[in-house]
Design a protein that fits this description.
- The chain is mainly α.
- It has 5 helices and no strands.
């Protein structure tokens, strides 16, 4: 799989993830979604990365942020974004 993928590659959509995947058909819960993303084989050309606007990049970044904060994304957004903005 492609887990030499960087945060920059996820943010700039050059991770080589497909544009989307029907997780609602493939997974029973949200932890299965993260596992499904990690299992995806990536086959990218480092010399010529291809930009593919992919939901999977940001879904995976959400799981990464949740892991770092040890909270769900809605709780993080409330504390770090919404409350400070009032």
């Amino acid at each position: 799989n492609g887990w030499d993928t960087s945060i920059n590659e996820l943010l700039t959509h050059i991770s080589d993830f497909p544009a989307w995947k029907p997780f609602y058909l493939l997974c029973k819960n949200r932890s299965e979604v993260a596992a499904e993303i990690i299992r995806m084989p990536l086959d990218w050309d480092l010399e010529k990365p291809i930009v593919t606007y992919s939901d999977l990049n940001f879904i995976f970044l959400m799981f990464l942020i949740e892991k770092l904060y040890d909270k769900r994304i809605d709780e993080i957004a409330d504390k770090e974004i919404f409350r400070p903005l009032k």
